[in-house]
Amino acid sequence: MVVLNKIYTRTGDAGETALGDGARVPKYSPRVAAYGTTDELNSHLGVARLHAQGETDTALSRIQNDLFDLGADLCRPDMASDDKAEYPPLRINDEMVKRLEAEIDVMNTSLDPLRSFILPGGTALAAHLHVCRTVARRAERLAIELSATEDVNGAAIRYLNRLSDWFFVAARMANDSGKDDVLWVPGANR
Fold this sequence. Notes:
This protein is mainly alpha-helical. The protein has one domain: Cobalamin adenosyltransferase-like (Hypothetical Protein Ta1238, Chain: A, Up-down Bundle). The chain is built from 5 helices and 4 strands; from the N terminus they run ββαααβααβ. Strands 1-2 form a two-stranded antiparallel sheet. A two-stranded antiparallel ribbon has the order 3-4. Helix 1 (30-48) runs antiparallel to helix 4 (124-147). The N and C termini lie far apart (58 Å). One of its GO terms (cellular component) is cytoplasm. One of its GO terms (biological process) is cobalamin biosynthetic process. InterPro entries: CblAdoTrfase-like (IPR016030), CblAdoTrfase-like_sf (IPR036451), PduO-typ (IPR029499). Keywords: ATP-binding, Cobalamin biosynthesis, Cytoplasm, Nucleotide-binding, Transferase. It is found in: Cytoplasm.
C-alpha cells in the first residue's frame, strides 16, 4: 500500500528522479520518458471516461489500473533481480495482452470491415479514444527505444501495441459501431 503524507519532497529539484529500484536518473532519461508517457495516456483516458458509460467505462477503468501497473513495470529496470526483490515488482504479463486481444475480437464482431482509413473524430468519446490511441503508440515507441539499451519487459511492449489497437476499435464502437466513422477521402481538397 502506498502512503503519501507529503506531495512535494524537493528531491527532484536538481533534475533527477528515483526509479522503482531506488536508482536516481535524470528526469529526461528514456525510461522516465516511457513511463511518463503511460501516465500521460492514463490522464487522457480519464478525460475519455467522462464520455463513457456501462461496459465501456468498466473496461476503460480496468485499463487505467493496468496503465499504473505498466508504469510501475517500466520504472523498475533490473528484471534480473525480480526474484531477489524484497517486494516482487509489478510486471505486465501475457494474460493481460490476451485479454485485450479477446476484447478487440468481441468488439470487431459488430463492425463492418474498413474500406478506407478513418479520421480521428466522430463522437466525443471516439475522438478522445483516438487521442489515447496515438499516445499509446508514442509510449510503445519510447518503450521499444528504451529496450534497445536497457531491460524492458516484452509483455509491456506487447500490451502497449494491443492497447492502441483496442482504442482504435473502441473508437469505432463509440461511433455507432463504425456507422459514424469519419472516412478519409484521399486528395479531397486538391
